[in-house]
Amino acid sequence: MAVTISRRDFNGQLLGAAYAGIAAGAPASGVSLSPSRPTAEGLRRDLSRLAGRVLVDDTSRLDAADDFGHLVHRLPLAVVSPSSVEDVAAVVEYASRRGITVAMNGNSHSVHGQAQARDGIVMLSRGLGTIHDIGDSRANVDAGVTWGQLAKATFARGLTAPVMTEFQDLSIGGTLSVGGVGPSSHRFGAQVDRVLELEVVTGTGERVRCSRDQRRELFDAVLAGFGQFALIVRAVVRLVPAPERVVFQDVHYGDLQAYLSDFGRVLLSEAFDHQLGHALFDAGRPRFRLQVGRFFSSATPPALDLERAGLPWAGRSEPAVESYWDYLNRRASATRGGARWHLPHATLYLFLPAAQTQAFLTHLLADPARYEGADHPTLFGVLPWDPKRFQCPLFRVPRRDEHFFAIYLFRTSAADATTAPMVESNRRLYERARDGGATLYPISAVPLGPRDWERHFGPEVWRDVTRAKRAFDPSGILTPGPAMFGGQQ
């Protein structure tokens, strides 16, 4: 299990005397390196022909040993900023021959070390930042392009991706490796459900193009596969016409049962383009906000018609209108370098069967210690989705009810507070939900091991997963952070 320490202690430990010689090529923690496993300087010499940069300085490696969560810190041997797909393939082929682990880091938005590689190589996909082509219904983009960068380019042509995350500085390769969800997932599923083609680098360094019609086994393994089988370097994603504006309206509830019942009915009505739900706190007491909206490009906003969806008059806000661009950029708190970036974050993201949700939330909300960090949660979301919208095999959602509820808890602590209790709380809540039929969105700050992953996928899918690992990453070097097959917890 990963050790949880404060960022101040982390920097002090890693820059202390025990690590003073790493950048000069000395083995970490006194471990002798075999001739086939180079030192940091040896690795830099070996990869000197790359067009991109190979970085072994303390600053670069410390940055790669951290992420948005600031909970887990694994120091890599080197950091590579590739400038081409050829660089990525060369690094992976080199690492495969020497048994060195490799992870791809998009924009450092992981929260529990998922994109870190202790004593391995971290590659920065930001070096792959080209939007190659935008057509009438698709975009061909590098993995390091952010969804915000793509949105800016496509919106200029009247187009958008059907599913946009709430945080637009997430990389495309990063979200496609885990799933990618947003306020329109009730209608379009996850971002991985809207991918047409991928170019990837397997664990042997082979460059492969795959899709539903070509190398399907690899395509299905890579999408939401957490980088275990291949690294995404380019993607062709679906586009749809972009609206100009959004009209939305809130309905507030003090009663959890009424909120869940009404929101489930809203989902089934299929009346809205946008759906969000949050738990809010008033003097420590929870209340709930259901928000619905419609996209439009006409001069006059369309009627939201909340009555037809069965929503009550009481607790409604007045309808509001904003531009689609402002709508996409509502959330800036997770922006790299933003005001809250450097605070520790212990995200928990669960998908609960509808029949389990009220009991689970009643348990969760009964004790603030279960959901608070050192300060209140930044976001506490509760919203229903249709399981039929999610078709990617490795993106696991409950399927026994006509809908399920996504519950996400984005909580923070003060910079130097002890973060271990939040992670331990996440684990307990996950186990309680899992035992009732829930699944985990594994971007969460929840330590997982191989047995957890096997239970997460289920026996049949797990057999496919292990077969894909043997086929596409036989040396087991790719993305050690999630510990899907053992390793770096």
How would you describe this protein?
The protein has 489 residues and is of the alpha+beta class. It has 3 domains: 7-127, Uridine Diphospho-n-acetylenolpyruvylglucosamine Reductase, domain 2, CATH 3.30.43.10; 131-241, 2-Layer Sandwich (Uridine Diphospho-n-acetylenolpyruvylglucosamine Reductase, domain 3), CATH 3.30.465; 245-440, Vanillyl-alcohol Oxidase, Chain A, domain 3 (3-Layer(aba) Sandwich). The chain is built from 14 helices and 19 strands. It has helices at residues 7-14, 40-46, 58-64, 85-98, 147-155, 172-178, 185-188, 216-222, 256-269, 324-328, 354-366, 420-435, 450-457, 459-472, and strands at residues 53-55, 78-81, 102-105, 121-124, 131-134, 138-142, 159-160, 195-202, 207-211, 230-238, 240-241, 245-253, 274-282, 285-296, 320-323, 348-353, 379-385, 404-410, 439-440. The strands form 5 sheets. Strands 5-6-10-8-9 form a 5-stranded antiparallel β-sheet. The protein has a 4-stranded mixed β-sheet with strand order 1-2-4-3, sandwiched between helices. A 4-stranded antiparallel β-sheet has the order 13-14-12-15. Helix 9 runs antiparallel to helix 11 (354-366) and helix 13 (450-457) packs across helix 14 (459-472).
